[in-house]
Amino acid sequence: MQQLEKVKHPPIQEQASSRAVNDCSKKCFHGFGTKVSEKKLCQPKFEFKALIGEGSYGKVHKALCERGCAVAIKSLKPDFKYLERELRNLRYLSESTHPNIIEYFGHFYELGDYHLVFELGDEDFDDFLDRIRSSLINEHLNNIIFQTLEILSYLSKMKIYHADFRFINMVYLRSSDAIKLIDFGYSKIDSDEGYADPLRDLSRLGSELGSLQLNMKHKVPNQEWFDASLRFIFASDVSSLLSDDSNWLIGITDQLKRIIALCAINDPSDRENVIGMRFGLTPRYRLDEL
Length: 290
Fold this sequence. Notes:
The chain has eight helices and ten strands. The protein has helices at about 85-95, 125-130, 140-160, 200-220, 225-235, 240-245, 255-265, 270-275, and strands at about 45-55, 60-65, 70-75, 105-110, 115-120, 125, 160, 170-175, 180, 190.
């Protein structure tokens, strides 16, 4: 198990999330304090396990804290351009809880890297969908759309523009059947330059959902799948999307088709209405019961 060395800590102020617990039954703090305002240098101990993610700016490992709780640790270099902003936004989000936002516990600095400690997802949501998409039915789509619209509704309330809202930036937790948004490195709050309405990401969600149900239809990518996917990305008219049967999974409900089409078009005057349509998406089946 790794023992953190005492090092001169770079000038990032708050060290820990205000949230005291994760969903572990031990109510573990993972070595961090409980208040955002704490300035003391935390020296948690973690045993790094498997590499579960890697990108151009850092790596993500599964790790165990001293009490044996599994967490995800995202390791970033101090020169990562958006480090300060990501930490600020995570601290802001950690002041309240939401079942579809990944839980952030705190960060520590060791051997030249910043290590951000998060709740551990069971699987990347994009990979999970690749495995189960051939078994999905309308009631599963109801669940997926309900949860992703819940996320956008919450981001709108908090005035955080995620800026990279895709299934690849979500994880799935089987115990709670929860889809959780991760990776806030590019996100912006309303005082940042380049901030946009968080519901602007409805169009990105629409193209993701359109592509998902086309994958269910075609099973494997082909020219028809590719052409239809582009129509969801560049669509400018709801009726043209809805009227072309080649755009849709056979048997998909009219309600699902309309929500997906409205997301893809993303008329600014209709965004709140689209978000509210999630409450009509019933029944919703758990995604791990296929």
